[in-house]
Amino acid sequence: MPYLSPAVLSSVLLVSFPGAAADASRPHLMTPQDLTAVPARPADMRVEYGSDSNQFGELRIPAGRGPHPVVVLIHGGCFKVAYASLRDLAPMGEALKAQGIATWNVEYRRLGQPGGGWPGTHQDIGRAVDRLRALAETYRLDLNRVVIVGHSAGGHLAMWAASRSRIPPSSALYVKDPLKVRGVVDLAGPLDLSANIAGYEALCKDTVITALLGGTPATVPERYAQASPRRLLPLGVPQVLILGQYEDFVLLEQAQEYVAAARQAGDTVQLVVISGVGHFEIASPHASTWPRVRSSIRALLKSAEIGLPDS
After folding, report:
1. How many CB atoms sit inside 10 A of residue 64's CB?
2. What is the distance between the alpha carbons of residues 297 and 159, in angstroms, rounded to a whole number?
3. CA-CA distance, 89 to 53, in Å (whole number)?
4. What kind and span of H or E run contains 241?
């Protein structure tokens, strides 16, 4: 585990697993191809939330009468169509379904597609989340127990979706009555799009942040303010940030700074660092990270009135 200052340690939950690699040797880490190769059964149904071919989601509905708690899943891929699709989080959707949790795994317009970028990518996520209102009765969904989970770029979009009540009416991203969610789990997603742009774009091998927002923080500062969860605090819902020890896309110091700012603003937020893993293990239900990710999701969903199964 890399060195953490006392200030960082005070806000970080460190999770270790037996056999985790020592600091001196980085283990073999899961790749994007490994994540895409994780098997999953087909979804129960595909539902469109718009007219574009990428404005759809996949529903997985557990057995039983319901109403079922719901997890919205948002995949990553550097905001680019070439890098990922909702297939990446399909295994997580299947695993949560087995736990008695419905999932709404959403696709959206990305860079390289008509309508991707500003404001279409963020608008799609908002529309997809709000689409649950129309689906709730037919599929026995509990709108009082909705949690958003996103990985990588999707982690950013998950945090942003949970913050939509903070967006000013003048913004192209504003909607009057966004669906209220119970909480959000950010699996290594950017928290402030104006921070570490060069580092993130180097890892993505493209100018994905400036392309997403249509300019730099100097040229379109209002877009960065309206799209960055860090700039929209307080979000008003509990948040869990999960990073692997060998995370490259989100710097630990930036995550810790966000935690401090969110708590100062009045939010409940936890930062979890899992030893021995990198950027992609935290998105797989077959990796050692899954019990911790699953428990974070379930903790946010739990209700005093209607509990979830213990197993």
Report:
1. 10
2. 14
3. 19
4. strand 239-244
Tell me the H-state helices in the chain.
6-9, 32-37, 90-98, 120-130, 132-139, 153-162, 197-204, 208-213, 221-227, 252-264, 290-301
% of the chain beyond a pLDDT of 90: 88
Pairwise CA distance, residues 99 & 70, whole Å = 11
Per the CB < 8 A criterion, the answer to whether 110 and 88 are in contact is no
pLDDT tens profile 62-119:
999 989 999 999 999 999 999 999 999 999 999 999 999 999 999 999 999 999 999 9
State residue 32's pLDDT score.
95
Place of tokens 């989340």: 129
Q: Please give the domain boundaries of the chain with CATH numbers for all domains.
A: 6-301 (3.40.50.1820)
Beta strands in 61-154 (DSSP E): 68-74, 102-106, 141-151
Looking at the whole model, is its pTM more than 0.90?
yes
Tokens of 164: 């939509």
**pLDDT for 26:** 76
Which tops the pLDDT comparison, 180 or 17? 180
Cα–Cα distance list, 76 to 52, 105, 136, 280 (Å): 19, 12, 26, 10
